[in-house]
Amino acid sequence: MLWVKAFHIIAVVCWMAALFYLPRLFVYHAMSEDKISRERFQIMERKLYNGIATPSLIATVILGFWTAGYNWDYYAGAHWFWGKLILVAGLIAYHFACRQYMKALAAERDLHSHVFFRWFNEAPVLALIPIVLLVVLKPH
Predict the structure, then answer these.
(1) If exposure means fewest CB atoms within 10 Å of the residue's CB, which of 8, 16, 36, 48 is most exposed?
(2) CA–CA distance from 55 to each of 30, 63, 114 (Å)?
(3) Short-list 116, 105, 111, CA closest to 38
């Protein structure tokens, strides 16, 4: 079980790193003024999303439920666990929102400014803090 938990934590770290960096690329993409820069950001965003973020999301979810499955009776009755899952569901929605922004930026039809993406970039932190606190403190 410890191996599964370890790989779950690794997947979470990779996924969160991607969720922190991808919207930062959106900031620079929204600020870019030439075609070469926009094309470069499209490639970087696509590779990060498809090559790191999405596989890490899938691994996080699979390994997380695998880990919980070892002691499901405990987790099923733990309120902190369900709170964590709600926050993780929000991060999954954020992940797919990033995909929509990535596509809109690639099609040059996104009207959001770099300022919007700077604020959008903060959302994963607002979810990560309570997730970590719930997992570590396990409040009742």
Answers:
(1) 36
(2) 26, 12, 27
(3) 105
Cα-Cα-Cα-Cα dihedral of 54, 57, 61, 64, to 10°? Answer: 140
How far apart are the two ends of the chain, measured CA to CA in Å? 24
CA separation for the pair 134, 140 (Å, rounded)? 10
Total domains present in the chain: 1
pTM: 0.95
Conformation bin of residue 138: beta by default, left when phi > 0, alpha when psi is -120 to 50: left
Instruction: Tell me the Cα Rg of the chain.
Output: 17
| Residue 45 CB coordination number (10 Å) | 25
98: which 2 tokens? Answer: 């990033």
CB atoms within 10 A of CB 109: 8
CB atoms within 10 A of CB 18: 22
Q: What is the pLDDT of residues 8-49, one digit of tens each?
A: 999 999 999 999 999 999 999 999 999 999 999 999 999 999
Whole-angstrom distance, CA of residue 56 vs CA of residue 120: 20
